[in-house]
Specification:
Layout: E1 11-15, E2 18-21, E3 26-28, H1 32-35, H2 44-56, H3 67-78, H4 91-108, E4 116-120, H5 129-135, H6 138-141, E5 151-154, H7 159-165, E6 170-175, H8 189-202, E7 205-208
Parallel strand pairs: 4-5, 4-6, 6-7
Antiparallel strand pairs: 1-2, 2-3
Length: about 220
């Protein structure tokens, strides 16, 4: 299926920040698997950890305790703002979970009408139905039917326009602190603080999508 315009290259192996073709040509990997290979290629500690786990156990599902997952969750919560963690398989699934959590939060607090997710032009949040409409890129939503209810678009950097969009049906504001597909555009610290204040004043949740910029 011709979904991607693939480059006429195939790689046989990787080492650190470099990729190698079967003919031995070396390329500097500036894409990192589209921002997922944060540790580079063939890192010996990662290989050792994967081999060690593969020799023990592959999968049990989250209906059982997973000690190493609990250790990682504690490491994250001890060193970030978060109180709890929820692990997902991919970025789009994480954003879907965040959207569901925001809407369920307002429902549980007696405000079921608060379903609107405000996103920004130039964003990328994944390729599921919810995430493409949260970002609103015309080339991604074309052909997939009408916009589902509860998705609102704001202009990147326009805080006054954003304030006008926040209302009694707003559940959350969803943003990337640094946009990737939008051209590496970043919000300033002052802007992010102002958005945080806006959310606090209106009871709106704030969702940071740091799946690319965080890595």
């Amino acid at each position: 299926m011709g979904v991607y315009a693939r480059a006429p290259l195939a790689f046989e192996r990787g080492d650190g920040v470099r990729l190698y073709t079967a003919e031995g040509e070396a390329y500097l990997d500036c894409m990192a698997g589209i921002a997922v290979n944060a540790l580079g290629h063939s890192h010996p500690k990662l290989i050792a950890a994967l081999k060690d786990q593969a020799d023990k156990l592959w999968h049990t599902s989250n209906i059982f305790r997973i000690p190493n997952q609990e250790k990682l969750a504690k490491l994250l919560t001890d060193n970030t703002f978060a109180d709890v963690c929820f692990f997902t398989n991919a970025g789009a699934e994480a954003i879907e979970c965040a959207i569901k959590t925001a809407r369920k939060y307002h429902w549980a607090n007696g405000n079921p009408e608060r379903i609107d997710i405000i996103g920004f032009d130039g964003s990328f949040h994944g390729r599921t139905i919810a995430t493409i409409y949260a970002a609103g890129n015309p080339s991604y939503v074309e052909g997939f039917g009408p916009t589902p209810p509860g998705f609102v678009q704001a202009k990147f950097g326009d805080l006054e326009g954003l304030k006008k969009l926040v209302g009694p049906t707003t559940a959350a504001i969803l943003l990337e602190p640094v946009q990737g597909e939008g051209g590496a555009r970043s919000w300033t610290e002052a802007q992010l603080k102002e958005i945080r204040q806006l959310c606090d004043e209106t009871g709106t949740l704030l969702i940071y999508d740091e799946i690319q910029c965080g890595l």
